[in-house]
Amino acid sequence: MGDTRGFLKVKRRASHYRPVCERLKDYGEVSILPREEDSRKQASRCMDCGTPFCHWGCPVGNYIPEWNDLTFRGQWEKAFALLNATNNFPEITGRLCPATCEYACVLGINDDPVTIRENELAIIEYAFNNRYVKPNPPKKRTGKKIAVIGSGPAGLSCADQLNKAGHSVVVFEKDNKIGGILRYGIPDFKLDKSVLDRRIKIISKEGIKFKTNTCAGIDYKAAKLRKEFDAICLAGGCRTPRDLKIEGRGLDGIHFAMDYLIQANKKVSGEKIEAQGLINAKGKRVVVIGGGDTGADCVGTANRQGASCVVQIELLPQPSDCRGPAHPWPKYPLILKTSTSHEEGTERKWAILTKKFVGNSGHVKKLLCVKVDFSKKDQRGCFVMEEVKGSEFEIEADLVILAMGFLHPDKTGLIEELGVELDSRGNVKANEGFATSVKGVFSAGDMHRGQSLIVWAISEGRRAAHYIDKYLMGESSLPVV
């Protein structure tokens, strides 16, 4: 602990963002990296607690107090070494993680928590700028070959760890570029794709091979995978969206959030989109159904495309601004979160049920909605949704985006061919060692645990790599956390 009174002398610095009027004109990252001196001051607020609950709140087990102390002292290279030991992609989590660690920060009990996520980002960007991050291929190879299916955060972290162990890893990706949801599901204003390309270039030099435009199970049959590889890790994500099957669903102008975001990201990157299938919010009244992060990304994208107005509606009631008794410290709380996209312009409505889509000439024109109430409980103690009588209303819309989450992975192709057992939710079932019901086949990330956070995907990828290495070699020196 570099400064025993740091948390008393320094207040939490609010994140800095580009002005709304400026950032709405482009897709550049909205956040501004803190200055080195500011990061050191913020790191001084870390109290180096006897029991650091931030560790408990971090799925990858970052050495948070330790690298905060090193940051405060200006020992950036040592801070990077500690950060690199637990997190394969801190430049990603430093931008996108909801910072579960900060909600578990002991200082947060009676003050604002330490800016852990920003400090993490400051360390890794300093490391890149000073060339601490270099390709480090393994000195010898084991002769074992592993196929990793999916190049999202779970797949890439698993591949990176297995490559470090000396195995030959091939990552299969159905799209034409590597990154999965990081590339196609996250807008550039949150994650500039040059950040992703920078990391992919490094792990490529370390020996990881990539096969793009290859849908495992269709373009590359399961039998061929099992014959050519000693182990397979299924990390294809959870991409089957939750639908809203109500009257009028078949009208034009109603799209799933991921279809919208993928297309928008491709267009920003310069990929050609056929005009006939273009989803564009320019000059349109946009309604986003779903109040989560994906919905917020759709709000930000629609505003940048020039929507005339954007409304975001959510079925559940508006969360509280502060912790409730159901989410005491150090749990991750269900509280109201306002993103940079919301600040750029949208009307948010809570406890709204969409009953019907109404159209004109085959195209959606409005939503028929009703307010709902969750104050009553059933015999099991679960909240019951009831429509509020006389609360019906309409929302005009030219474009509707369904951002209501995801149900399970796409089962067509590889999952069906391999015949792996599924759990009750339709996800790939795996044991504590991430092994599926088929010998030599493992699963990690959202494909295994269901829709979750990027940091959990990285954590699962790392842990799965440990057990795959142990399966192949009898033992493993890779970390299990």
Question: How would you describe what is shown here?
Answer:
This protein has 481 residues and is an alpha/beta fold. The chain folds into 3 domains: 6-129, Alpha-helical ferredoxin (Fumarate Reductase Iron-sulfur Protein, Chain B, domain 2, Orthogonal Bundle), CATH 1.10.1060; 145-239 and 407-473, FAD/NAD(P)-binding domain (3-Layer(bba) Sandwich); 243-404, 3-Layer(bba) Sandwich (FAD/NAD(P)-binding domain). Helices cover 33% and strands 16% of the residues. The protein is built from 19 helices and 16 strands. Strands 3-2-1-4-16 form a 5-stranded parallel sheet, with helices on both faces. Helix 3 crosses helix 5 (64-72), helix 10 (153-164) packs parallel to helix 19 (454-473) and helix 14 (257-268) packs across helix 15 (293-304). The two termini are 25 Å apart.
Q: What is this structure, in a nutshell?
A:
The protein is an alpha/beta fold. 33% of the residues lie in helices and 16% in strands. The strands form 4 sheets. The protein has a 5-stranded parallel sheet with strand order 3-2-1-4-16, with helices on both faces. The chain has a 5-stranded parallel sheet with strand order 6-14-7-8-9.
